[in-house]
Amino acid sequence: MVHFRSRIAIALSLLAATFCVPVRAGAAEATGVVRPPLAFVTVLGINGGHGDVVVVSPRDGRTVATIAVGLEPIAVAITPDASSALVLDEGGYISVIDTASFVQRTTIPVCRLADAIAITPNGNTAVVGCPNDSSLDLIDLATGHITSVALPFPPGAIAITPDGHTADVVLPTSSFSDPTGEVVPVSIQSGAVGTALRLSGWIGDKAAFTPDGKHLLVSYDGNTQTGSAVDVIDTASDTISAVIPVPSIPTGLAITADGTTAYVSCWLIGNEVFPISLNGASLNPLLGVGSRDVAVTPDA
């Protein structure tokens, strides 16, 4: 990406800590099992204050499984090989769920009140946003080694560029006096920060790249023209090429591997997951399960 990604402004320190909890990789390829496409949707406060992950078929909206996880599951990401779903909760843990058996294999402690998680395209690293600490936790999924990257701001949503080099971090608001959100690129290797790109709305929520890396989609709570919407950012020019209106309070965003559909979970309007066609097709709401965040397997 060019322009705002190329102007690196601040060098950041790296702090290292070690916690060994390996996450199995390559399971789907190793077993040769062909799995149906699945959507993993986090649901708050169902199990006596804890939450669930509801596994849904994107093809027909059928609930496949319900998995109990930690306190207030706020975000979910799926490894590129589709073997694991990593569910982040506000209690400070990642629940690692086997996507074949729907069994929680282990938990990984992270910062408390973490609110975002993304996985690098090679499946090696999970990036967790820690707003209370103004940092990113980089977790090696093979060794459990954690590197903390200090930031000059509390991070919001995270999207990883397809080349795996940069984490685009959403700042929900620019400042107390200006509620407009921003997207800031952070180098995963050096921890350096680039120049921010201003969104067209305020309270930025979630972000995801299309598989070809040509567009970054960022959802936000509202603006004066459309209300809640998704900005479509052209990554070659670093400009907003489209604004897609969505129902109120979009709290989750995921894009299918073929780049044709974005799934947006909306907290207040029927607690549904809404598919957005990125190629003009007509789609219907997927489900109503009290959703907070959504991730889809690569074959969805």
Largest sheet: 7 strands, antiparallel
Helix content: under 10%
Strand content: over 45%
Number of strands: 24
Strand neighbour order, sheet with most strands: 13-14-15-16-17-18-19
Please tell me how large the radius of gyration is: 18 Å
**Head-to-tail CA distance between termini:** 26 Å
Unreliable runs: 1-34
| Tally of individual helices | 1
Which sequence of SSEs, written as H and E, runs from N to C?
A: EHEEEEEEEEEEEEEEEEEEEEEEE
Overall pLDDT: 79
Alpha-beta classification: mainly beta
Which of globular, elongated, flat, extended, rod-shaped describes the shape? globular
Please render the helix and strand layout as text.
Layout: E1 14-18, H1 27-31, E2 39-47, E3 50-56, E4 63-71, E5 73-78, E6 84-89, E7 93-98, E8 104-109, E9 116-119, E10 125-130, E11 135-140, E12 145-150, E13 158-160, E14 166-171, E15 180-187, E16 197-209, E17 215-222, E18 229-234, E19 239-245, E20 250-255, E21 261-266, E22 272-277, E23 287-288, E24 291-296
Antiparallel strand pairs: 1-12, 2-3, 2-24, 3-4, 5-6, 6-7, 7-8, 9-10, 10-11, 11-12, 13-14, 14-15, 15-16, 16-17, 17-18, 18-19, 20-21, 21-22, 22-23
Name the descriptors.
globular; seven-stranded antiparallel beta sheet; five-stranded antiparallel beta sheet; mainly beta; 24 strands; 300 residues
